[in-house]
Amino acid sequence: MKKLLCILLSTMLLFSVAACNATPQAETPPPAPAQPEPAAPEAPAQENTPAEQAAEKVLMGINSAQPPASFVKEDGTIGGQNYAVMTLIDELLPQYEFVYEAVDQDALLLGLDSGKYAAAVGNFWYNEKRNEKYLFPQYPIGGGVEGIAVNRKYFDAVQSLDDFAKAELKLTPQETSGAMYDVFMQYNEDHPDHPLKFSAGEVTASGEQMKWVKEGRYDGAAMFASEFDELKSTVDADDKLYFVPFYAVKTWVLYTKDQTELVKAIDGVMAALKDDGTLSKIAVEWFGYDIYEYFD
Q: Is residue 161 scored above 90 in pLDDT?
């Protein structure tokens, strides 16, 4: 019995020593929950620059048979001073793309009136009736030097429009919707003491009018300098006529009344082209002279 008790005491002592000498183990904390990665910031929305935006197409009618202002070449492409100016404007306005249809003058106005065309590119002069109906830009696109083909027998006495009027010479009939009709009517209003002698008439080709002057039926025929120069070699090869310049007719592109923003943009470009001499260079290229020098 004593022996069994000793064995039990010895066993308990051994467990006690082992427990005292054991090194306590630190508890391992539970793994931290996974943290979501921060989302990448969204890129700000990019706005298209004017160059990247689709250009607005603008359909324009252009005169097909009005050289050297505009005309259709043998290869079907368009040429002329008006076209050259409008093409350059188009290049400088990336927000627009000009598209052309080459038609005659009557079709230009019909297309403008119907709303088919935003603009009519032709040699249109200004008058109050047109100003009420269409939108005129600030700057004319071109023009032409007007004058009178005069019988050479008057060379010493007539070198100006005043000379012609004071000599009481007679002009060929003027078409009432023509550019010169308004000019001559205004001249007579301003010079009641020596008015020009002319009557209203039908449209007559300049070459025919030159023949009338040579025949003595009339003393002078109003026309553009470019027409006189072109017809001189065939109609007046014997040099019976001479040309007296007196006026520069400004010609305009007409726009529909709702094209205010387009016209404003075009006016800005035209101002720059006028100031840097580009318009004058184009005029010399197509007309042989700077038409803009004759404008007021």
A: yes
Domain ranges for the chain: 56-143+251-294, 144-249
Within this chain, domains 56-143+251-294 and 144-249 share the same CATH topology: yes
pLDDT band at 275 (very low <50, low <70, confident <90, very high): very high
The answer to whether 294 touches 145, Cβ cutoff 8 Å, is yes
What percentage of residues in the chain have a pLDDT greater than 90? 67
Cross-strand bridge partners of residue 97: 57
Q: How far apart are CA 212 and CA 20, in angstroms?
A: 143
Question: Residue 194 and residue 166: Cα distance in Å, rounded?
Answer: 6
SS (H, E, C) 187-213: HHHHCCCCCCECCEECCCCHHHHHHHH
The secondary structure of residue 138, as a DSSP letter, is: S
3-class SS of residue 173: coil
Q: Which CATH class is domain 144-249?
A: alpha beta
Count Cβ neighbours within 10 Å for each residue of 212-237 and write b for 16 or more, e otherwise.
bbbeeebbbbbbbbbbbebbbeebbe
- CA of residue 282 relative to chain centroid, distance: 14
Architecture of domain 56-143+251-294: 3-Layer(aba) Sandwich (3.40)
**Beta pairing partners, 58:** 98
250 contacts 137 by C-beta, under 8 angstroms: no
**Higher pLDDT among residues 29 and 208, named by residue:** 208
Is the entire prediction scored with pTM above 0.70?
Answer: no
- 224: closest CA among 209, 234, 240? 209
Beta strands in the chain (DSSP E): 56-63, 65-66, 70-72, 78-79, 96-103, 119-124, 142-151, 174-175, 200-201, 220-224, 241-255
